[in-house]
């Protein structure tokens, strides 16, 4: 698990492929994350500007890591790529100040 400093902006990337392994955009892309205070935030592409399409099948969200502790996230895609999902987490270290 990657560790960041409190106040960092953490770029979380997601990639989607079809059954043959080629990059493909889902019809719907969602990104969800839960901060250490258990607040869940959801972004949907293209509705929410925070969820950015970089190229075919590749997306990112910049998360403002303002709270120390463990952060969980989940990518979801549906439609053109069938249904797919991926989860991960990162840690934000406590500040010494």
Summarize, please:
With 97 residues, the protein is mainly β. Helix content is 0%, strand content 57%. The mean pLDDT is 95.
> Any guess at the CATH architecture?
Sandwich
CATH class category name = Mainly Beta
Overall helicity: under 10%
Taking the sheet with the most strands, its summary is: 5 strands, mixed
Biggest sheet: strand arrangement: 1-8-7-3-4
> SSE order in H/E notation?
EEEEEEEE
What integer is the average pLDDT? 95
Task: Give Rg in angstroms.
Answer: 14 Å
Structural class, judged by helices and strands?
mainly beta
The low-pLDDT segments are none
Spell out the key features of this protein.
three-stranded antiparallel beta sheet, 0% helix, five-stranded mixed beta sheet, single chain, Immunoglobulin-like
Q: What does this 3D model show about the protein?
A:
With 97 residues, the protein is an all-beta fold. It has a single domain, classed as Immunoglobulins (Immunoglobulin-like), CATH 2.60.40. It is 0% helix and 57% strand. It is built from no helices and eight strands. The chain has strands spanning 2-5, 9-15, 28-34, 40-45, 52-55, 58-64, 69-78, 84-93. The strands form two sheets. The chain has a five-stranded mixed β-sheet, with no helix packed on it. A hairpin with a 5-residue loop joins strand 3 and strand 4 (40-45). It starts with a strand and ends with a strand. The model has no long low-confidence stretch (mean pLDDT 95).
